[in-house]
Amino acid sequence: MRLPYAPSTPPADADPSTTEIYARIAARRHPRPLIPLDLSLLHSPPVADGWNSFLGAIRTRTILPGALLELSVCRVAVLNSAVYEWNAHAPLALKDGVTADELRAVREVEATITDAGKEALGRSVLSEVQRAVVRYTDEMTLRVRVEEETFEDLRRAGLNEREIVELTTGVAAYNCVSRVLVALDVGENNGREMKSVEELVA
After folding, report:
1. What is the 8-class DSSP label of residue 15?
2. Cα torsion through 86, 89, 95, 101, rounded to 10
3. Rg for the chain, CA atoms, rounded
4. 3 state DSSP class of 44
């Protein structure tokens, strides 16, 4: 990483609020240890605390199917060349039911902000709702402004209002995550190749 990682436990001179922040982050990660992203953000405990609360809500308090959330996260990782994010979330996508062929399409179909990308997406193995999620993710990530047709595709694919809000905040959140990961080179992954789908399913 471009900065040294913060300590994995509160420093001896930490004030009570910082100690409490460490405890909240550790509770969300339990039984796993703090990850490199946590140890990057903990240089600013208040930021790490807010981040933990926001991402914790997206990951544990939403009704959007996990497979759709992870599909969108993996697409963000591909678009932003966030190796750490892909390597962390592609296995979660597979665990949540995304097939190897679907994950391969998420990685290989070119950005759907072009006609060629839209055509490639249409020929892919992805389902109607998965295609709608990919297009929405692409436009949010690369253009910010989402076309009306793309938004309506989410409704036609069956997502309700809460799920659309949760998808939107999930895509926004993991764009934020990827930008921090890449800018600070968290996990020392910049310049490395993303794991192939074949490696992930081996």
Report:
1. -
2. -30
3. 18
4. coil
- Evaluate whether 45 touches 21 at the Cβ level (below 8 Å): yes
How many Å apart are CA 114 and CA 121, to the nearest integer?
11
Does a cis peptide bond (omega within 30 degrees of 0) precede residue 65? no
Q: Please give the angle made by the CA atoms of 160, 164 and 167, to the nearest 5 degrees.
A: 135
Q: How long, in residues, is the chain?
A: 202
**Structure tokens, 78:** 């591909």
Predicted confidence (pLDDT) per residue in 20-75, tens digit: 999 999 999 999 999 999 999 999 999 999 999 999 999 999 999 999 999 999 99
Using an 8 Å Cβ cutoff, are 169 and 53 in contact? no
Q: What would the pLDDT profile of 120-131 be if each residue is shown by its tens digit?
A: 999 999 999 999
pLDDT at residue number 202: 86
Amino acid letter, residue 87: N
The whole model's pTM is what? 0.95
